[in-house]
Structures are given as C-alpha cells and as structure tokens.
Amino acid sequence: MELTHRLATEADLAVLDALMARAIGQLQHGLISPQQIAVSHKTMGLDRQLVADRTYFIALADGQIAGCGGWSWRGTLFGGDDSIVRRDPRPLDPATDAAKVRAMYTDPAFAQRGVGAFVLRLCENAARAAGFKRVELMASLSGARLYRKAGYIVAEETASPAVDGITVPLLRMEKAL
Questions:
Q1: Within 13 Å of residue 57, how many CA atoms lie on the same side as its CB?
Q2: What are 66-75's pLDDT values in tens digits?
Q3: The 56-61 sheet, strands edge to edge
C-alpha cells in the first residue's frame, strides 16, 4: 500500500465528517462503553478552522482516503465544530507554546496499516517547519498506542466534558520535536 497525501479543502468536509464518524464509532469498541462512544461523537470531530488554515492533511492509500489529521498554531487542543468542547482560536507562540496535533482519524478499513503514523509525521514536520519545538495532543484510548510508539508521553490523564453525566477518558500527551 502506497501512502500519499494532500491538504484538505472545503470540498472534502462531508467525506471527512463521514470518515470520522466511522472511526469514532468503530475503533473504540472494547476500550470504552457504548455510552462513552456516543459521547465521543459529541466531543470529537473535525475543526473546520484546520482546513481553513491549510494545516489539515488527507492520507491517500492507492488513491483512496485512508485517514486524516492536522496540526494547529492555535490554542484549541481538541474538539470539532459541533462538539461541546470550548474553542481557543488565539495564535500560539512557537518560542514558548506547543503546536497542537488535532483531529487524527483513520478509516476503519485502513486501521493498523501505518496511516496514523504517516499523518502524525506530516503534522510534526509541518509544526517543526513553522518553528515549534514541542507538540501536544489529546489522545483517545484508541490512539494512545500510536502516540506512545511515536515518542509521546502522557502529561495528564483527564476526561471529556460530561454529557448526561458520562465522560470519556482522554490523555493529554506531548513530545519534543
């Protein structure tokens, strides 16, 4: 399988939303409860600001969209446009702040085939090229193994905002570039 990439555009939004819904719904089974998966749909997703900022990548496997993910020079750590997570659009300072790796998703049909690692490297390289020395991200339990393997360390064990009293476990992770 040959992986290539391109930047996402506004024309990709519907396809990306569908890919993310599949990933959230399928790749967390066995790690969190069905109720927590339902909450994940309300706290995760695509932040269209990443597409507008041209910092959001699409990974292609033999021409098919296999995954996506991006990085940001803004303060928001996680959450999509329709999520209940608070937004922080302020610009970050590469000299003192960590770039944010955001909205990393692999289509379930391509899981465990190197797509996430490929997109993560794209994000890290772009953040490094923008002058950032560190990156951080908010990991779901399904993504934590990938990030640990890539050298990220857990900075904080936390949880999503509650929806009807239910939260989703999350890990804030970081890495020096």
A1: 28
A2: 999 999 999 9
A3: 3-7, 56-61, 64-72, 99-106, 134-139, 169-176, 153-159
